[in-house]
Amino acid sequence: MDQVYADGLFSDEVVLITGGGTGIGLASASEMGLLGAKVAICGRRPEPLRKAVNRLGSQGIEAFGAPCDIREPEMVDTFVDAVVERFGRIDVLVNNAGGQFPTTAEALSAKGFQAVVRNNLVGTWAMTHAVANKAMIPQKRGRIVNIIASVVRGFPGMVHTGAARAGVDNMTKTLAVEWAMHGIRSNAVAPGVIVTSGTKQYPPGLLDIAEKANPLHRLGTAEEVSHLITYLASRYADFITGQTFYIDGGASIWGEQWVVPEDVPKYPPYPVPRR
Length: 275
Hints:
It contains seven helices and eleven strands. By secondary structure, the protein is of the alpha/beta class. The protein has a single domain (14-204, 219-257), classed as 3-Layer(aba) Sandwich (Rossmann fold). The longest helix has 30 residues, at 110-139. The chain starts with 13 loop residues before the first strand and ends with a strand.
């Protein structure tokens, strides 16, 4: 990864990243760790976490990782307590953990909708609440970066996560105002289609369509998203709060029509640029 920020930018700071074992979370942990941060990562699967901690350690980064399902408040409290005990403080929280599955709205069950909202919205709140009360509010300082999705014009084919991510977007703005008195900044990053291990679950045809539909005619990378997260988590952005930053190659402002690709049957609608 190319270094774009000053050496030591996060010296003596502690960064907690959920979903930190792979993809955007791991890229962010690596970037901020190389800039001096001590890094704590969590996720549901122990094996990716173990590999991630070893990888960060090989880069000279002091890293701590432990399994944590953000949907379970007791696990969240236990993990946050462990991070504070290990490092003494938490300066940055990156809420990156989440999950969803493509589906048409009419085929989505109540259980499926609730599961995604519980993960992406309720879980994000549980981690935010715990970190704020156990670390950031007492120390009168903190930076929160919530990773959501490009939902500004709706999210056909992902109604469950669209609703949940919109909730996090509003939560980001609300906390920016309420917690300003505690020296806490709160911002969100809304990635478009980013090439990570998670995109491997989608049929190649959909990724091809997404690439052609993008004004830049390509997909984003985890490292590009990490650069934005790192900026918002740094002192360089200390006068920015309550904002959502879209990083999608212009897809969110490009005229699109939603269609079901003929070569990908029984799949949710997907954006194709208007001509």
